[in-house]
Amino acid sequence: MSAEIIDGKAFAEAFRGRLAVQVAAFAAAAKRAPGLAVVLVGEDPASAVYVRSKGKATRAAGMESFEHRLPATVAQDELLALVDRLNADPAVDGILVQLPLPGHIDERVVITRIDPDKDVDGFHPVNAGRLATGLEGFVPCTPLGCLMLLKDRLGDLAGLDAVVIGRSNIVGKPMAQLLLGESCTVTIAHSKTRDLSSVVRRADIVVAAVGRPRMIKGEWIKPGATVIDVGINRTEDGLVGDVDFAGAASVAGAITPVPGGVGPMTIAVLLRNTLVSAHRRASVPYEKGSL
Ligand SMILES: Nc1nc(=O)c2c([nH]1)NC[C@@H]1CN(c3ccc(C(=O)N[C@@H](CCC(=O)O)C(=O)O)cc3)C=[N+]21
Ligand SMILES: [Mg+2]
């Protein structure tokens, strides 16, 4: 084992500590705390765990957490009506509707109903368009968390070869946009990519977001590369990533573990996006780059 282990959990904790200070400064200026509304539909146990830990982290940072639980059988119109109320609520700076939603609900319709300026997940097409065209908006939490870890380790990313494996709207596509914005040479690989091992082998930065346990092999990794594992796969041997960790750690320069890598960053960035939203909505200025 030669790779440095990137401690996302420690990084996220330190970041949340700095955020709490900035939340207090916002609250003093605006005479209110930033507010995050989280909507959970149904009783999926994994989703319930995430929503609970989001609520805890929100309160620990000094923000207000508004939690809404709806039964799995709720009508789409009822969910949309809740989104409308949250859009109109001045105490709510950020809205997160936990995905996946039950099969009878069209996720695109729900996401598109969220006010783009409260869409702290960055899933609304308006925010995807803003990211793609370099406008200010909200960037999805997981890819932004990955970028923070990469910049912390590598500094300037300009000119580096980056491969993103996975093309979802939530991780792969926004991750590729962010890396392009940092002037990386970006390749997006996916299930139809031919000779994936050769594509991965030329990368200085590998971001794995495919959702297949241990799919990315150590022999594919260029010696010294930085490997970011977004995978959260529940298997018989517990939680594992999309990367064969033991194999990759013997060749990579640095690698994120699962758990304790990208996951905790996702929640920290959610709080960060909510604080940014509060600043914008209350017209309280903040120092660029401080958040
Ligand atoms: N609208 C919406 N926004 C989301 O951001 C969203 C979502 N829906 N649906 C589900 C996924 C998943 N997700 C995670 C957040 C934190 C960890 C996390 O903190 N993981 C820890 C512990 C994991 C564990 O022990 O289960 C770790 O990786 O170390 C993981 C996954 C956010 N998601
Ligand atoms: Mg659905």
Notes on the protein architecture:
It contains 10 helices and 11 strands. The protein has helices at residues 8-30, 45-60, 76-88, 107-113, 125-133, 141-154, 172-181, 196-201, 245-249, 262-282; strands spanning 4-5, 35-41, 64-70, 94-97, 161-165, 185-189, 205-208, 226-229, 233-235, 238-240, 254-255. Helix 7 links the parallel strand 5 (161-165) and strand 6. Helix 1 (8-30) packs parallel to helix 10, helix 6 (141-154) runs parallel beside helix 7 (172-181) and helix 6 (141-154) packs across helix 10. The radius of gyration is 19 Å and the shape is globular. The model has no long low-confidence stretch (mean pLDDT 97). Bound molecules: 5,10-Methenyltetrahydrofolate (GUE) and magnesium ion. Residues 50, 96-99, 121, 141, 232, 239, 258-260, 263-264, 266-267 line the site of 5,10-Methenyltetrahydrofolate.
Give the helix/strand layout.
Blueprint: E1 4-5, H1 8-30, E2 35-41, H2 45-60, E3 64-70, H3 76-88, E4 94-97, H4 107-113, H5 125-133, H6 141-154, E5 161-165, H7 172-181, E6 185-189, H8 196-201, E7 205-208, E8 226-229, E9 233-235, E10 238-240, H9 245-249, E11 254-255, H10 262-282
Parallel strand pairs: 1-11, 2-3, 2-4, 5-6, 5-7, 7-8, 8-11
Antiparallel strand pairs: 9-10
Helix pairs in contact: 1-10, 6-7, 6-10
The structure holds 5,10-Methenyltetrahydrofolate and magnesium ion.
EC number: 1.5.1.5, 3.5.4.9
Keywords: Amino-acid biosynthesis, Histidine biosynthesis, Hydrolase, Methionine biosynthesis, Multifunctional enzyme, NADP, One-carbon metabolism, Oxidoreductase, Purine biosynthesis
GO molecular function: methenyltetrahydrofolate cyclohydrolase activity; methylenetetrahydrofolate dehydrogenase (NADP+) activity
